[in-house]
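U., I forgot to send this yesterday:
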Amino acid sequence: MRTRSLVSAALLSAAITGGVSAQITPNWFRQPAISPDGTQVVFCHAGDLYVVPVGGGRAIPLTIHEAYESSPVWSPDGSMIAFASDRNGNNDVYVMPAAGGPATRLTYHSAGDTPSDFTPDGGSVIFSSSRVDHADSALFPSGVLAELYEVSLSGGTPRMVLTTPALNARFDSDGGRLLYEDRKGYEDELRKHHESAIARDVWLYDAGTGAHTKLTDFAGEDRDPQWAADGNSVYFLSERAGDFNIFRMPLEANAQAQALTSFQDHPVRHLSRADTGLMAFSWHGDIFTLAEGGQPQKLDIRIALDGRAADTQTTTERGGATDFAVAPNGKEVAFVVRGEVFVTSVDFDTTRRITDTPEQERSVSFAPDGRSLIYAGERDGSWNIYEASLADDDELYFFSATSIEEKAVIATDAEEFQPRYAPDGNKIAYLHDRHEIRVFDTESGQTTVALPGDRFYSYSDGDHWFEWSPDSEWLVTHLYSKGRVFYGEIGLVRADGTGEVIDISNSGYDDGRPQFAMEGGAIIWASARYGERSHGSWGSEDDVVGLFLTQDAHDRFRLSKEEYELRKELEEKKDEKKEDEKKNDDEDAADDTDADDDAESPEDGDADEDGEDAEEDKPEPLKIEFEGLEDRRERLTINSSSLGDFAMSPEGDKLYYLASFEEGADLWVHDFREESTKILAKLGASGASMQLSEDGKAIFMLASGSLSKIDTDSGTRKPIGFRATMTIDPDAERAHLLQHTWRQTRDKFYRADMHGVDWAFYLRQYEPKLEGIKNNHDFAELLSELLGELNASHTGGRFRGSSGSGAASTAALGVVFDQDYSGDGQRIAEILKNGPLDKAELAIGAGDIIIAVDGVTLDASTNFYAQLDGKSGDRVRLTVRSAAGEEADHVVRPTSLGAENQLLYERWIRTRDAIVQEASGGRLGYAHVRGMNDDSFREFYSQVMGKHYDKEALIVDTRFNGGGWLHDDLATFLTGKTYVELYPRNTLAPNARYHGDPSTRWVKPSVVVMSESNYSDAHFFPWVYTELGIGDTIGMPVPGTATAVWWERLFTGDLVFGIPQVGTKGADGRYLENAQLEPTHRVPLPPEAAAEGQDTQLLEAVRVLLEDLDN
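Result:
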């Protein structure tokens, strides 16, 4: 358990340096790099590069660009600075004069490039980038495992230095050796305090011998290696003393390291060192220098530059709506864009902004009279419920209103959101602390618990569904029954909290999204009861199911078209008769009133009339006939599907629903009288929701962020335009989002003790830093630093900004190039199977050299990848010189990098299988589980039960599996035990023996190959495999990450953060999180072996299985 020291970092630093203020500064200065002569420091601030004298003072901007610049490094002579910039949609390497001037682009690839050093002669920059490994490499083709490249300052195509990951790589003075930190798999860059196999180590690479030497053996993080002046020692950052600090050790494996700093509570980051021995680093947003033997000195840095952006920004959005509600009159629609509430006209694009806050609002709902709008707003440290109302009686609509009044309806310290007006307008149902449904009476001010919090668990906000009955006395809700979480049932509860919860579904399958239909005569919901289930634990196709609360409602629903028309005509005649009788009664009453005009005042008469009208408009009380209730359930859809939203017509004769049978969701209609099903409107939408108008004549649709109105008879779709103009205060938004993230994590983190972290302390530590943050890229980094304190998997901040229309998009030829070739052009080592060049008509093969692309000659100064920018799917002319020296032009259509990566994965699988078949003499099967999802399980099952069904044993490879939810399916599949064999009579093969049951499970021995790269459920599965004693595990330890996460996208749209919120415990009561799983047979995959194509872990799996089979 991590506990904060009683002595704060600032005070401790003040004590040891005499110059560090105890006050938290607003600075957010990152990635300092000290010049070789030790006189200047270049650093990153607000997305630009600045340079400042080593003694502090005014910082001078080197870049002033809309892009985000990072990772600066100095040339050996101090004349140039290389850095990364996302000017083209992703990080490329640029170089510029250290004194300032234009920047020159050196790399042209859609993969992110991060420079770490210059070559000793200053002529090239080395950088890390995830492209394509060396043809011989045994490494998994993953974006996590970057290669190391070198690119000349004079241009040209980068040359591979190492195919194995070598981050923060630094040459020694003569270029013969390289210090670097490794990367073995997935984890957030800024996670802290973890000690596991995934933590990074410092390595030494000898270019002369090709040997890699691991220098550090600490179980936690060792990073940012820097050469000492003697060339025989290394400075680096390590958490071996608790927080990241600077250490020095000899260049010997597992040598004793000496601590040079003692900072606490926050990590030392971004170490660099000058030739003079002076070091620079950052700590909690400030920059320090350190001379060995001295004390850290904080640089007093002044930024004398106005920001690039205005304090506020005005924007008009015409899409991006995330939530909506239709007014009862059908003439206006409320919606949410970027966390603000708007109302727009259905017929025009006249739009009115309702809320204007830096916080977010959501969950809009109109009052029955249409003159009020209710929503949730996250203000004053919690989610509250607010009501906006038309203040002027003469104004009829929100979209044209000039006076709108807002008031807080429910505002407490609790989290209260998702409000819904009752049809009578006198009550509001809402969620209290995410799990409990409460009802607020607007007249009395009293609150009632309708559904206790122990009947539901909210995984992500908005997943708890409930709806009012027409009489405002009941709620139908999604709940969890009998302690079976994540398998929903449908419940009926009284709004006043009395009585028991009535489970009306009791299906055992997942049921959800209930709503009343047929004016309270039925309840419909989505159910997985009838649909095909996924092969793995990933849900199923759904149907709409209806339960009819009375026999009369059920009978009416089941009427044929003819019966319905006859009944409708009879009811209309009865209504006419009643209307005539009422008219006669009213005339008689009027005569009596005329005879005694003085008996009551006109006002009294009006009051009685209003009361009678109100009584007539009041809906009938909800009637539930419990006898035979379960027998009145009907499957309403004829085909199961990937089901979206749905609604039933008021008469119950039609069902409208969103379903995906092709690309995206379309609007379907099923007519129960006609017994027909058809597409009403072709949408091809993702993330669609809908609302049926009160008269059933129109469907209002929110699809892909846009609103529209669809006629239910013709299917004609009319866009509902809006102009959501808002003024944004980014600084205020980030202040809110920090609070939001902190609170969400506090309330949903899987352990209430927050892993022993003083969570309130860290909020106070990071809030002052917001003043120095001017973009969401830096803000995401701050979130990662904050969340990283929890020492938990599945967390950290992510910036997901738009690449823009001018972003680079490198096309791919589906080729593995010869990285050992040094001549002009690109020599082919291998053409990927099924790639763009794997065509019968193309006479191109291994050993051929591409010498030109679209007529551009590939010489030493030409960057090959620049010629492929934006050409995916286009016709491209390649000039190719064959191994025999003949030249020819070939026209091809390159593919995308994503498609090429799939081809590389398939190549890796074929190579692994070939290794197993050769090493085992064809006795063993091999299958890789790519992810813990349905597609991966289907591929795994196909390989095992098809290609390898007759093998004696099976190797299950789980390396570089990023997780999902499949552990139980895999464990069940691998624990089959034959209990019967089949012997059908076959006269042509009288002695034939057939495998019996189980016929869909593996019944022979198996082993699991795993590594540091297994994550999440890919940790859970080998743990289950070990716990059940299914077989041996082979490879490297797997970090403890078996925790379920919610990745929440914040309302700005470009920020995501993770909350590990569902922990797992074994029979011993210990959490699996941070409990590393050790393999039965520990086998590393050394960099040298991986580079040469040797899969040591797979070969050991073959050896173990064969030994077991033979013994």
